[in-house]
Specification:
The protein is α/β, with parallel strands linked by helices and 253 residues long. Helix content is 17%, strand content 27%. It has one domain: Ribonuclease Z/Hydroxyacylglutathione hydrolase-like (Metallo-beta-lactamase, Chain A). The strands form three sheets. A seven-stranded mixed sheet has the order 1-2-3-4-5-6-7, covered by helices on one side. Strand 12 and strand 13 form a beta hairpin. The termini are far apart.
């Protein structure tokens, strides 16, 4: 797969009570230089979300739009191309990282240079993110080393985008600074989980800074605190729901 935003999921799907987001995976291909016709922002007052699959290990980068602001979550690669596909008239308020691995923050520098916004990450992963452009343990390198963050967030902080709020819960295990962003306000029913939870699985803990013990504690917390009706926007693979993961994910049993 090409390491671009070529698998952009078109249309900035409406967030309307978050009923599963079945339409988000349209499978359309957008190559460099093509118009991304569906990305016109919102016209009906509802929040919207889009996903771009980027980089050599297919990381999910998300754009959450509320009113005339947006948050870009985990631009791991192809930051300049992601910027080209953002809708006109919407201000990037935050570039938010769920953790500091290069496949999630390698595109921050180019994206920030193109569209602005405040880059925010948990302080425990700031140093890790500064090596995003260097070969990682798996041998991959991404666009650039992440810059110094404009802001850091920790447990209980809330970042606001339009009518939406996202509350930080610390979920170490994959990395020391891994977090989930739990939606509030117009984003109720949404959670960006990074590499903490995957459909039917969870993030690996055998890379530097990983901890099986911390991951078990974090998953127990996610199980306890995230409403079953929440849609989980994972760092890799398919979008899922907390209800489905509670029913079938062996790491929640």
């Amino acid at each position: 797969m090409a390491e671009t935003s070529e698998r952009a999921h078109e249309g900035y799907e409406d967030h309307d009570e978050h009923e599963g987001h079945e339409g988000c995976d349209c499978g359309c291909d957008h190559h460099e230089g093509e118009a991304h016709d569906g990305c016109h922002g919102q016209g009906d007052g509802r929040d919207q979300v889009a996903m771009f699959v980027v980089g050599p290990i297919e990381t999910n980068c998300y754009v959450y739009i509320s009113e005339d602001e947006c948050m870009v979550v985990d631009p791991g690669n192809s930051g300049a191309k992601i910027a080209e596909h953002l809708p006109d008239g919407v201000r990037v308020k935050y570039i938010a990282a769920t953790h500091g691995h290069g496949d999630h923050v390698g595109g921050v520098k180019a994206l920030k240079e193109a569209v602005g916004g405040s880059y925010v990450i948990h302080p425990a992963d700031v140093e890790l993110a500064k090596h995003a452009g260097e070969p990682c343990e798996l041998g991959y390198a991404y666009d650039d080393n992440a810059p110094d963050p404009d802001l850091t967030y920790t447990e209980g902080d809330v970042i606001k985008v339009g009518g939406a709020g996202f509350r930080v819960i610390e979920t170490p295990g994959h990395t020391p600074g891994s977090i989930c962003l739990v939606g509030e306000g117009s984003a109720e029913g949404v959670c960006f989980v990074g590499d903490t939870v995957f459909q039917g699985s969870c993030g690996r803990t055998d890379l530097a800074g990983g901890s099986p013990e911390d991951m078990r504690a974090s998953l127990a917390r996610v199980k306890r605190e995230i409403d079953p009706h929440t849609t989980l926007f994972c760092g890799h693979g398919e979008i899922t729901t907390m209800e489905d993961e509670l029913a079938s994910n062996p790491y929640f049993q």
